Amino acid sequence: MKAVRDKLTIQIEITNDCHNECANCTRFIGHHKKPYYMDLETIEKAIDSLKGYPHSIGIMGGEPTKHPQFEEICKLLQKKVPKEQRDIHTAGYKWDKYKAIIKKTFGSAVHVNKHLNAYQKHHPMLVAVKDVVPDRTLAARLIDNCWVDQRWSASINPQGCFSCEIAAALDILFDGPGGKPIEEGWWNKDPDFFSDQTDRYCYLCGAVVPFINPLVKDQTDYASASNYNRLKALQTPRFVRNRVQLFEDRYDEARIGSLLNQWKPWDHKGDGETKLSCYDLFGPIGGFVEKYDRIIRQKIRYKISHIKEISFTGGHR
To answer: H/E element holding 222?
Structure first.
């Protein structure tokens, strides 16, 4: 598994409230009876726990701009996190209201996905690998090579710190025991430190199952038996509305091998949709300024860290 310190982003998940309700959402929007809003004290504690972390510190939801204290959160980030490290994922909710403070806080690191494209698709994370891959050795091998672990983020939510953002979302959904305490240096631990999360949630997750991603517009969540029964016991809103379909297929090594060439679970945007750039969001001049401001800040940061490294080690041979 990839060490958290080597992941390019750690997300602070400030809310699971969202104006969208996409099928197979990685945050399981629509299954919670009541959303959470992380309080400012916990957010500040989360930021402080990342002291020394060298990569991006992201704000996510749900939809982060639905947090009632979103502007205060932005100001907290401005105070505590260098601009070149700040990052946000949003669907553009109330864009006109928050555009200015988003630009000031995050610059060019604004990832907007409005989820309006009819061809958007999400990988169903509730198809538990333990249910659909009976060979436990094969399941463990798939988990060791998980694309989410390699490509996506670690996470902090009100339940604690997690080496994987999907594990964090599952812990919220199923009211789990929580993550590691939110304290300085948690992100610098070796992967074995998070082995309890791997054992508890990786086998409940479907990220490594080569399921060809269904379209968001189909409005059907797929869940294997164990997770289907959990949702049923919880009587989640989407389950009650018959938005969950039981998935009972089985995968062996041969079937998995036959599907790998056409399986790209990280490709969620769909046909014909391009990523919105900072030029699209802030115009040609504003976009140019924010893009190169970030580049210059990152270069300065790298040079400073390199100088510190040389001074600590006594130089290079």
So the answer is: strand 221-223
